[in-house]
Protein 1
Amino acid sequence: MAMPQRDNYIEQIRRLEGLIAYAEEQQDWEELERLKEQLRKLMEKM
């Protein structure tokens, strides 16, 4: 995997982790599940 592509994946993961933490803080469970699914799919790509 090329470095820029890897860096992009890392940036996307960090963004999703922040959004997951915010959704959890706001107790938005539907959004939390949607974001977790996005994160799972992104991790599968790596």
Protein 2
Amino acid sequence: MKKIILFVIILAAGTAIGIYFQKQPAAQKIETKIQTDTSQAGADVKAGEQKAEAAAAEVKTGVQKAGEVATNVAGEIKNGAQKAVEAATNAVGEIKQKLN
């Protein structure tokens, strides 16, 4: 009877040790996967930041171009207005000459 009890205790201890060692690699695999996922998430965040910075640079360039276009349009309008004033002045001068 003592031999059977001793055998059962040794069998239970062996089973417990076997289960313990089986779970260890699984825990390491989970830890490794978490580390890999964390690294990938960090890389994705950096890539997202770079894309956002590139988009901001494009927006800034677009705003600068829009400002340049607005400045050019304002200059052309000013030139057109000056030409219109000159044409009106010339027309008034010619009319005065013809009336005299």
Protein 3
Amino acid sequence: MRAGLLLAAAVLSACRAEPSRPFPVGLLRPVPPRVAAEAARLGFDVAAAVPDGAVSAYAGAPSHRVGTEVAADWTALRLLSARAVADGARGFYFRLPPAPAGRDHLDYPEELQAPARVLRELQALRPVLEFGADASAPFAAPPGVRARAWHFRGRGYLLLVNDSGDDAAFEGEVFEGLRALFEARSDARRVLTTCGGRFCLPAGRALWLEGRLR
């Protein structure tokens, strides 16, 4: 987790400031009591209905039942959440697939990993989404790529979402001064694939980027 985001979250928590644009993240009921308690412990909201302006998504694969097959992967679920953010959603919730009778989702932690990871990422970004000022993207995105940018506490933040059917190519220099968030490498050029001397964001992928402190 990037230190800048953690510091910003700590500062805002200490000040108890009211966000100008609340962005709750969490789960939609029905969920078992034990799952609801764990979600609340992690700081996620558990709601009976999607709040105004928020978006919900199913956290399982088609015909999925917990304990019988593998859930939708993290990349697919992150794309759903990133697309919602890029389109201006004011919150994001997952609907969990039903658990087998007598069990709950915490009995199958491997199948909760993907949605939990996406919610943790959004939770870390909430200071930016709730308090950041909308900004222009620092470069033009290729056709088929949605881009949304913010300024927050002296840094720029950028979200790129490629929900087209084709890989999207970027010139490497556009990523100078930007760090990839929630990736194994901070250099965005090492996160992307190479394509014809340029760098491609694969189809169906989202990328969060953070600029240098000004």
